[in-house]
Automatic annotation (TrEMBL):
Name this polypeptide is given: F-box domain-containing protein
Source species: Zea mays (Maize)
Source domain of life: Eukaryota
Pfam families for this protein: F-box-like (PF12937), PP2 (PF14299)
Domain F-box, residue spans: 69-110
InterPro entries attached to this UniProt entry: F-box-like_dom_sf, F-box_dom, PP2-like
Length: 353
């Protein structure tokens, strides 16, 4: 339940504070009339609004109410309507703002409603459920720490963490959740434990001719009005083959259609190797790595490689999404030839930075 708003406090609020610049409290003044003023978040949304008495009004003895004079629950309720980044900026304004911005009420509001039970269990098991909720929130932002095991559609094998600045939900799908190729009725992947995997096991490609990988996630579990990118997370085993060239493609589709942010299927390369590439492109070929060409992977701090598969933007607040709609991230190696040595950890959907 939200805090009580005492009558008269918010109607006489006198503050004009832009949180994106973290300036001290600046007061709207007017000698002729009462001026309207607002407390805004960095995205431009008004979270508190009131008026400043004119000189004539002040001459009659009416005093201004400064933001620091407001009860802490009133400030906390307003700050909770912004974002974690804005809450931290508010804490730099004054002691009164700091007390409200660091309150359990504010940081509890930044925890997603749809996974509260799984998050509470995760924090309890980690011994992080008894301290300030701000510390608990920050613990949920460590995607490299494995994230929170959640069940988004009954299949399990999914981890959640939060983008620290915005609170947007990010997900990692285990290789167990992905659609992997079969050939001749025999599964061409080997499941094996892996010390670096947050899921405890990975899928290693033993041998196949056609390689295509698909991962699905309900759009409804993503944070609204947020730009996301999908990433294939993987490693390369010794004795690998067929993972450099020829063409490899990736894409992100939303309910069967390609989002405007993706434009088209993109060319990617899991293991850039110019010597291997020239076997297919010719000895004098210039390999089109980089912007506008082949998207190459990067080595992460946790030892895995990742390559961006595509992008999408979720529906804006107030808009309706199609019920049961999925976002699908796909990867395909074009061409029939032997392939092996891909160690698949999963697919991640993260807020685009």
């Amino acid at each position: 339940m939200g805090p009580h708003w005492p009558g008269g406090w918010c109607s006489s609020l006198s503050v004009n504070l832009n949180l994106s610049s973290v300036t001290p409290e600046t007061w709207c003044r007017s000698n002729a009339f009462d001026a309207t003023c607002r407390l805004q978040c960095s995205a431009g949304a008004t979270i508190l609004q009131g008026y400043v008495p004119s000189a004539a009004t002040r001459a009659m003895g009416e005093e201004e109410t400064r933001a620091g004079d407001l009860p802490e629950p009133c400030l906390a309720h307003a700050i909770a309507l912004t974002s974690p980044r804005d809450a931290c900026r508010c804490a730099a304004v004054s002691p009164a703002f700091r007390a409200a911005a660091d309150s359990d009420y504010v940081w509890g509001r930044f925890v997603p409603e749809d996974h509260r039970r799984a998050i509470a269990l995760h924090l309890h098991d980690a011994g992080r459920d008894r301290g300030p909720r701000k510390d608990a929130y920050l613990a949920l932002c460590d995607g490299g720490g494995g994230g929170v095991p959640v069940d988004v559609d009954g299949d399990g094998w999914c981890r959640l963490w939060l983008d620290q600045a915005s609170g947007a939900k990010c997900y990692a799908l285990s290789a167990r959740r992905l659609s992997l190729p079969w050939e001749d009725g025999d599964f061409c992947w080997r499941w094996a434990p892996h010390a670096r995997s947050r899921f405890g096991e990975v899928a290693e490609l033993m041998d196949c001719s056609y390689l295509d990988i698909y991962g699905r996630l309900p759009v409804a579990v993503l944070t609204r009005a947020t730009s996301y990118a999908a990433y294939l997370v993987y490693g390369i085993a010794e004795g690998h083959r067929g993972l450099s060239f020829p063409d490899q493609e990736a894409a992100v589709s939303l309910g069967g259609r390609v989002p405007a942010e993706s434009h088209h299927r993109r060319s990617v390369c899991l293991r850039p190797d110019e010597a291997e590439a020239r076997k297919f492109w010719g000895a004098g070929a210039v390999i089109p790595y980089g912007v506008g060409g082949v998207h190459v992977p990067r080595l992460r701090d946790d030892g895995w490689w990742e390559v961006e598969m595509g992008r999408l933007r979720t529906v804006e607040a107030g808009e309706h999404e199609a019920p049961g709609e999925d976002v699908v991230a796909s990867f395909e190696v074009v061409g029939s030839y032997p392939k092996r040595g891909l160690i698949l950890e999963g697919i991640e959907f993260r807020k685009l930075q």
